[in-house]
């Protein structure tokens, strides 16, 4: 115990400059000296608050002022319709004038009281230190001043972000992905939450995975511009399961990569609730499982449509108006899945033209099953081809039933020039022989000593390669199987 008193004595000697013989009397002297401070001419007993130390008195007085100011500000916010529950632990300005300035500033950029109530914490951000620097930078990178209010409404947390530490690195990351400078504002307007992402997190991993499955790194920028939400998707729970499922259907990885490059929004389709449901729907309507990869490659959007309703409507229409049964309808969808989205009145126009030229309903049904693209051809285009076929070529109509693709070729660019070449050579052949081939193949056929047998178009087997019938006779530059399917898909 005596050692404790000695340490206290040494400490007080250092602080007060003198030694106390009896340390226990220290606690008697200090209040006495404080009571003798001349705070007022009034008797101290009349004002007991002056008995407190001066430092403590100042702190309590300041807290009282803050409390009064907070009550005034809270009453002001309630008077204009702002709910203050979330502001109880928020640091607020010292005066109601500053708060009024913040509210008016937010209203001037386009926010309403309801918008502020969605995220009232924005009222705790300083206009000069936080809000103005952020909005100035957003306008600098391409967001229109008239759209700043909408941007803040969708992502109000940006108002408390550091321009240098948080915003600039995200913009530089987007530029590094080859997002055009003029598109930065457009990308952020579509997905403002990008400004809150960490560069080493989801954004980097999603890009790395897409490149790993064959997406061209130079196409990442256009993909992000088209569908910036992919940067916020987790690979393990969203992107990879989607990719793995399509690969399991037999879609080649290279084709899938090309699909995603052109239509990045496919990644946004819900795998369980939409994609798998639509695939099962296609199977239930008679589409063969081995034809699924070709259907998806030709029309990837089919994975995200309300497919059951569309297929039911079109199937009923084809059976009622075109006399095509359910099996024939399934073959039509396999060859041209875009049929599910075509307007029925547009489909009827070429059908009515063919019926008006003497084709029977059964012949028209056969023609559509063989070549579904027939229903998308403009009637004027069909008229020109039909009159040339009847007047100049003088062929029987049965040839058109056997090869309805004739109506899909350009009269001036393909049919006339090739027919005239055949006439000059005195060659007689079917429509498919001289029309259903490339220019180089046509030249080889024209000057060859034999006629290549007619063959069907490209075939695609689930899990296998694309096989081009008669490919042994092609002398043009070889291209990969996946490239052939992709080129054919794009042309469709």
CATH-defined superfamily of the domain at 344-448? Transcription termination factor 3, mitochondrial
Helix content estimate: 55-70%
What is the number of strand segments?
Answer: 2
* Structural category: mainly alpha
Q: Terminal Cα separation, in Å?
A: 98 Å
Order of helices and strands: HHHHHHHHHHHHHHHHHHHHHHHHEEH
The fraction of residues assigned to DSSP E strands is: under 5%
Rg value: 39 Å
Protein architecture, described:
Strand 1 and strand 2 (466-467) form a beta hairpin. This protein has a two-stranded antiparallel ribbon with strand order 1-2. It has 25 helices and two strands. It has helices at 2-16, 26-35, 54-79, 96-108, 113-118, 127-140, 148-154, 163-176, 184-190, 199-212, 220-226, 235-248, 253-262, 271-284, 292-298, 307-321, 326-335, 344-356, 361-370, 379-393, 398-402, 411-425, 431-435, 439-447, 481-491; strands at 459-460, 466-467. The radius of gyration is 39 Å and the shape is elongated. It is an all-alpha fold and 492 residues long. Among the domains are: 270-341, no CATH class; 344-448, Transcription termination factor 3, mitochondrial (Alpha Horseshoe), CATH 1.25.70.10.
């Amino acid at each position: 115990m005596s050692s404790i008193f000695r340490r206290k004595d040494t400490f007080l000697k250092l602080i007060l400059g003198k030694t106390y013989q009896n340390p226990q009397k220290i606690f008697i002297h200090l209040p006495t000296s404080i009571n003798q401070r001349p705070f007022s001419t009034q008797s101290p007993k009349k004002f007991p608050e002056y008995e407190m130390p001066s430092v403590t008195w100042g702190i309590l007085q300041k807290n009282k002022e803050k409390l009064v100011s907070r009550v005034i500000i809270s009453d002001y916010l309630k008077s204009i319709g702002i709910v203050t529950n979330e502001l109880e632990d928020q640091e607020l300005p010292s005066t109601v004038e500053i708060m009024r300035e913040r509210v008016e500033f937010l209203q001037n950029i386009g926010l309403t009281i309801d918008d502020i109530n969605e995220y009232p914490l924005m009222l705790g951000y300083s206009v000069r230190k936080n809000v103005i620097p952020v909005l100035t930078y957003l306008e600098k990178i391409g967001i229109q001043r008239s759209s700043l209010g909408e941007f803040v409404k969708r992502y109000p947390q940006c108002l408390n972000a550091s321009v240098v530490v948080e915003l600039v690195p995200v913009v530089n990351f987007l530029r590094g992905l080859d997002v055009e400078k003029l598109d930065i504002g457009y990308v952020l307007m579509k997905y403002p939450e990008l400004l809150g992402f960490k560069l080493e997190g989801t954004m980097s991993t999603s890009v790395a995975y897409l490149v790993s499955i064959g997406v061209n790194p130079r196409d990442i920028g256009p993909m992000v511009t088209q569908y910036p939400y992919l940067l916020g998707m987790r690979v393990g729970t969203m992107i990879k399961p989607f990719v793995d499922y399509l690969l399991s259907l037999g879609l080649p990885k290279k084709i899938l990569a090309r699909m995603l490059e052109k239509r990045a929004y496919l990644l946004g389709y819900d795998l369980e609730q939409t994609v798998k449901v639509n695939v099962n729907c296609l199977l239930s309507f008679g589409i063969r499982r081995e034809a699924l990869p070709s259907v998806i490659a030709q029309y990837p959007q089919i994975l995200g449509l309300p497919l059951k309703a569309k297929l039911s409507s079109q199937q009923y229409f084809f059976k009622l108006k075109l006399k095509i049964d359910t099996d024939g309808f399934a073959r039509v969808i396999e060859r041209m899945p875009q049929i599910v989205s075509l307007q029925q009145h547009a489909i009827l126009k070429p059908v009515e033209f063919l019926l008006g030229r003497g084709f029977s309903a059964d012949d028209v049904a056969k023609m559509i099953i063989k070549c579904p693209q027939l229903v998308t051809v403009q009637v004027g285009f069909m008229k020109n081809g039909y009159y040339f076929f009847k007047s100049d070529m003088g062929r029987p109509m049965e040839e058109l039933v056997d090869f309805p693709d004739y109506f899909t070729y350009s009269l001036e660019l393909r049919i006339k020039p090739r027919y005239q070449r055949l006439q000059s050579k005195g060659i007689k052949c079917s429509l498919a022989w001289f029309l259903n081939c490339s220019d180089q193949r046509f030249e080889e056929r024209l000057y060859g000593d034999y006629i290549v047998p007619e063959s069907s178009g490209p075939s695609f087997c689930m899990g296998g390669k694309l096989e081009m019938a008669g490919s042994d006779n092609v002398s043009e530059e070889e291209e990969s199987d996946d490239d052939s399917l992709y080129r054919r898909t794009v042309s469709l």
